[in-house]
Amino acid sequence: MRLRMEKDIKFMAKKKSSKIKKKVKAEKKPESKELVHRTRIRVIGVGGGGGSIVSEIARNLKRVDFVVANTDAKALKEASKYTKILQFGQETTGGLGCGMNAKIGQKAAKDDKAKIAKLFRGIDLCLLVSSLGGGTGSGAAPEFAKIGREAGAMVFGIFTLPFKFEGGKKSYLAKNSLKKLIQSLNAVSIIPNENIFKIIDKKTPLKEAFSTINRRLSENLRGLVEMIYLPGLINIDFADVRTILDGRGKLTYLNSAESQGPNRVDEVLKELLKSPLNEYNIEGAEKILFNITSSQNIGMKEVEQVSKTISDFNRRAKIIFGVSQDNDYKDKIRISLLAVGCGREDRPKAGSPKAKKPQPLPQREKPKKKHKPKARPKKKTKKPSLNKKSASTSVLTEAPSEEEPDRVLTRRNALDLRKAVEEVEEEMEAKEKKWEIPAFLRRKAKNNEQASK
After folding, report:
1. Selection from 246, 270, 424, 397 nearest residue 337 by Cα
2. Bias category Basic residues: which stretches (predicted)?
């Protein structure tokens, strides 16, 4: 009996110890999961234009959540099945659009702030896409950006500007909306719709033309997503992206390019650094992030050439780069580039002659008007001779400045004016005599010559 009791006790003790170990392991597992943070990226299209862009991009991109947000219930029905739908501002618009009224779009977003805030919960990076110039996009997009920033997400805005033929009203709404957006965005990329004519033929159908822009945007976003998610030989993660995007309202250049063949590096760099959709390049960029993807045959010289070419745009820039190897690329090479802090403002400062020429012109005109009236009251006798000989525009402009001191003198003393007039008359008579003397001498010389003959 004692032996059985001892065996039972040992058996029960083993069971308890095994249960305790299992509990410890179960407690440790969630701790390891918490240490590995999965970056969450969400693309939100605001308004009709932004929704159509996101709907087309969603078909080609993975690992990213897509949301189409609009006040127009009819437009939301046309959204892609790969996207989630958010209708806001129903009380304000009654399920219709904003009718190119940005104030209505802004009010619609403010009224449903709590609903919009849910889109940004747990999101690390939000890509806000909209076609500015309409009521919903121009009015609601700034509110979306503000709510996203308050939620703690990094917000990168990608916006298109209206065509010139759409009128000045749309252009005004777009520019006004951009000013508000910059205050809440970490980074912003601007694509004027007018630049579409650089990459398509004028006979291209409208729907196909917009699809061309959407495909390019899709490729650029794919490059950014791959930088964050895919491991590499020299790895880039979201911490690097956060470092580059940290800031407020910085103009950003995002582009991806691919090439193959013996001159693949030269060709890919040309396409990478000159995007036809943007009106600016990476010149003056403060922070640069790029990733090179190729097969295992990529050489050190190729990596050096790419890095040197990009860094030459600004040697003081903070640069982070990565290298990924994919055997499916074979002889291809792909580069994805994200440059922050570049833009139009750096170009005129870099030393363009157009900015320097207009500055000295007003400086030259002002001293002429100031110095000439001071020196000319002493040379009053030369006025009639100048007026007789020439009638240039410079003399006409100088004439009023010369009359000002005379008016001041007449007001002070009439006697001084009479003396001045008499002096002028005497000087004129003396000049006339001087002008006539050479004529007399010539006549005498002619008479003497005739007499001698």
Report:
1. 270
2. 366-386
Residues 70 and 116: their CA atoms lie apart, in Å, by 11
Q: How far apart are CA 59 and CA 68, in angstroms?
A: 14
Which of 54-58, 284-288, 353-357 bottoms out in mean pLDDT, i.e. has the lowest? 353-357
183 — pLDDT class (breaks 50, 70, 90): very high
Find out whether 170 is annotated in a ligand binding site.
yes
DSSP string for 350-392: TT-HHHHTTTHHHHHHHHHHHHHHHHGGGGGGGHHHHHHH---
- What pLDDT is attached to residue 24? 46
Domain boundaries, the chain: 37-229, 258-356, 360-446
Residues 6+ apart with CB under 8 A from 134: 47, 48, 49, 97, 98, 100, 105, 170, 173
Q: Is 70 flagged in the annotation as binding?
A: no
Whole-number pLDDT of residue 335: 96
Rg, the chain, Cα only: 39
Average pLDDT for 310-338: 92
Q: Binding residue per annotation — 136? A: yes
CATH architecture of 258-356: 2-Layer Sandwich (3.30)
The string over 238-266, giving b where at least 16 C-beta atoms fall within 10 Å of a residue's C-beta and e elsewhere, is bebbeebbeeebbbbbbbbbbbeeeebbe
Q: Where residue 199 falls among pLDDT bands split at 50, 70, 90?
A: confident
Q: Is the pLDDT reported for residue 10 higher than 90?
A: no
| Token couple for 49 | 């234009």
d(CA 147, CA 143): 6
Global pTM reads: 0.69
381 is in an annotated binding site: no
Residue 166 marked in a binding site? yes
Q: Is 39 one of the annotated binding-site residues? A: no
Encoding tokens for residue 285?
């960029």
In this structure, CATH architecture of domain 37-229: 3-Layer(aba) Sandwich (3.40)
Residue 413: what pLDDT? Answer: 62
Show the tokens assigned to 163. 């065509």
